[in-house]
Design a protein that fits this description.
Number of helices: 2
Helix content: under 10%
Radius of gyration: 18 Å
Shape: globular
Oligomer: single chain
Order of helices and strands: EEEEEEHHEEEE
Low-confidence stretches: none
Length: about 200
């Protein structure tokens, strides 16, 4: 199960001379729950969901507000946060440069400048994750002055941006191999043009 909210809007579009650092932000919260009746091996959260609407053409990841190290039944040492940049590279911790991803504590400490090229958030918890265990992840998205895709200014057309995230629980074993259940939820942020 996944519940997604995106608050702070409608977001006003600043005048063109406004520095990027002063552009407005909205806050996204993802609440992923193992709503199966049994323990599972893995709980994974991906934003944006594969093949679905993404906010990262018009928004930058500004920073994590809440990102738990573990959920009930998971092993904190196995938690991995994969932050993929526009060029396909993954943010790594200099202390563990061969690991494609970082621990939640490292991700929580990343600055807006370090996160501005991120276009995908992928968080995995592993262990024997309890039924009804929940991971609540909160982060801020800051409006971009120009779209990532074509470099043109962000305008009020379209009037809002949709964003779809996905949560998946997986359990290994059984006659069918891997049992996987996925759920998606979406949220939208409206724009408000400066008409003065």
């Amino acid at each position: 199960k996944l519940d997604k909210t995106w608050v702070g809007g409608p977001i006003g579009l600043p005048d063109y001379w406004t520095p990027q650092s002063e552009y407005p932000s909205g806050r996204v919260t993802l609440k992923a729950t193992n709503d199966t009746p049994a323990k599972v091996d893995r709980l994974r959260i991906v934003d944006a969901a594969p093949g679905a609407a993404s906010p990262f053409d018009t928004f930058n990841l500004k920073g994590f507000v809440a990102l738990p190290d573990a959920v009930s039944g998971s092993v904190a040492a196995k938690t991995l946060v994969v932050l993929t940049n526009q060029d396909g590279t993954v943010i790594t911790d200099p202390a563990t440069p061969t690991v494609q991803g970082v621990k939640p504590a490292y991700a929580r400490g990343l600055t807006a400048a370090q996160l501005e090229n991120v276009v995908s958030i992928d968080i995995t918890y592993e262990g024997r994750i309890a039924s009804a265990a929940t991971a609540t992840v909160t982060f801020d998205l800051q409006l971009r002055a120009k779209k990532r895709s074509d470099g043109l200014p962000v305008t009020g057309d379209p009037a809002q941006i949709s964003n779809v995230a996905e949560a998946t629980v997986e359990d290994l074993g059984g006659a069918g191999g891997v049992h996987s259940v996925a759920a998606r939820d979406d949220a939208a942020m409206a724009f408000e043009e400066n008409l003065t």
